[in-house]
Amino acid sequence: MIGQDPIAAFRVEAGELLEQIEQGLLDLGHRLDDRDLVDAVFRGLHTLKGSGAMFGFDALANFTHHCETAFDRVRKGLAPATQELVAVILSAQDHMRALVDGDGKGLEATGDAILARLQAAIDGAAGTPVAAVAEAPAQGWRLFFRLPPEAMANGSNPLMLLDELRELGECKIVARTDAIPPLTDLVPVECHIGWDVELRGDISRDDIDDVFIFVMDDMELKIEALAPEPAVETVSLPVAANDAPPPAEANPASGRPAAKAGESVRVPAERLDELMDRVGELVIVQSRLSQLAHGSAVGSEMALRSISEEIERLASELRDTMMVLRMVPVATLFGRFRRLVHDLARDTGKTIDLVTEGEATEVDKTVMERLADPMVHLIRNSCDHGLETPEERIAAGKPASGQVRLSAHQQGGEVVITIRDDGRGIDRERVRAKAEAQGLIQPGQVLADQELLQMIFHPGFSTAAAVTNLSGRGVGMDVVKRTIESLRGAIDIKSAPGEGSTVTLRIPLTLAIIDGLLVRVGEGRYVIPLAAVEECIELSLEDDLRSRGRSFITLRERLVPFLRLREMFETGTRPDPHQKIVVIATGAERVGLVVDQIIGSHQTVIKSMSALHRDVTTFAGATILGDGGVALILDVVQLVTLGQHQEERLRAAG
Amino acid sequence: MQEQTTTQWGADGALEVLTFDLQEETFALEAIMVREILDLLPETIVPGAPSLVGSVVNFRGKIIPIADLRLAFGMPAAEATVDSRIVVIELETESEALQLGIRTDKVHEVATLMRDNSEPAPAVGLRWRRDYVRELVRTQDGVIVLPDLATIFRTFLGAGDAAALSTVH
């Protein structure tokens, strides 16, 4: 969009940068000596400062400059990265966010306080030997650099870089030719020469970096301070293809979430292509329509009708494609909790590891937004109530650091999100005492374990002996439950004393996309979520006849019961000669569904059923097929349950 | 909760309605509720759903149920004719706007009914459930029935939704 507000564009960009910085800082908190992370954070701050100044966010640029300077010292080894520094920069990062979002008024005091803390953190660190050695001004630098072979093709000119270095001070440049290939293999437009440069004079490291700023990401660069300083510093920048590698790439081993965006949604290019295709078709139809409007009247009625149908189809497809664009991976949600857990660990004095799984699972953007608050509550509960202090954990024979595990996966028509901790579990006695005190249950009343656990969802219920800053005010769980239910989801809690608790959220994919298997039963078409499908086999005539009495087939030495959908749905049609069985897995069980025909796989935009069909639980929703028809999406779990009921009735009647 | 829906007559005692036929009876619904009148669409039967709302159609990318009011008024289900149409209406419920197609044998016109000509359903002489009828309105061509959709669909909706439904009429 050409007319886009540059300020808004900057805010989006700044939001992403801040997220990158935050993730980098959080990782740095765990691995203080990881140079790649230090560099990544520094680059983020640097870019933020630069673009902030460019768009007139002067307060932001100034403030960020101080943080950048502080971090630069870490980068150069003048000061070590410390937990305090990371914590200060994290809070500074929050302040930057405020500066990005607002006009900076009334924030000066906060900013100054943070800068004072920053100074303290840096000064405190400066007392350490690393800094002491490096404190003296540099006498000069020895550097070696080599540009990537394609540098000249990309528009870099090494001569200009050398000229710029010369301008910095007294300069001795020696070309290193060892990497030049033999003449036969030499491609003349590639740059194979490296340069050794000795720079003398009072030159700051920044000045040198500025020379290389545009090529820095791809090049090989070694910078050493000249004697008399013994401190040797090597910053080697590994080749990275992107012009601004996100910190995630700096450490591929740590299995991090994908990059996130603030209010913008990242859309996979193929989905945009799909949208583009639809728009292309629309343009063609539009030109047909205008041709018709200007042309002769012969047969125009038919043509008009066909165009109208075409447009109708396109419009609905466009909407479907749009809906797909709304899907975002839960990584965006999980990423937010890293900071939360970091802060909780700091506030509680516990060591907490956050492990995330299944971040690629996609959920509708709106659902995701509404899930954020309940999940914050749940994670707080886990960290604050669930996990023990390191001492208690060691005493209980567990590793000192507690673990909170977030995982997401799709199961049938639902997204299942679990929050699991390995803490002390829910104290049944306390829950009971509290419930009795609040008059929710009678003293001594016998309750199933699950019923007792459900008590914590009661409004105003809290088992925390003391109300802390974090949780224990009893406003959590009932709100969580309400929110999940408003998403038509369910919440389930399991807890083993001493082993931890697991909260499972099941959110239906109301707007979500699933891959489905399109089948035909009688005259109706149905979609079976592909995630539940194990395999498809043919129902042999033999099995079909024999199974009048028992509906089982033997599949790889195991009995698999099956349900005849034609009978369950009372289609009143004759079975196809070659019926198929779709074997589905519900939990540990495998069940076969007998269908008349398997049409194929089908990407499905789930549309919710009308409120009038709320009682028909067999279907998770419906979808619109290419021909405009409607196919119902089977809720396999409910279907199997219903099948059991029907059979029980039959047995009772028979 | 179970009170009948009251008709919101205009200040001048008039009500704009769309009139349509089911068998030999003429029914009317507030014109303001009507979204669209469609030719019959290919319907998808929902197994296990009550026969009153036994199928769904794709209405501009939305899945909407098709209601056969004939069944609520004890008429036999009938084959479609060339005059058959679907009247898409929108009911406001507590949680959402509920769109719904009503299968009709013939759609007549948008007419103005007068309150002075209307009467509540009589206690005797009615084959139908009395609470399904809001009012009977006399016109030159005969009697027009104003059905009580809230009551008819109440069983399928949560009680709260149905209560909200009855206030819009």
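qc> The two ends of chain B are 15 Å apart (CA to CA).
qc> done
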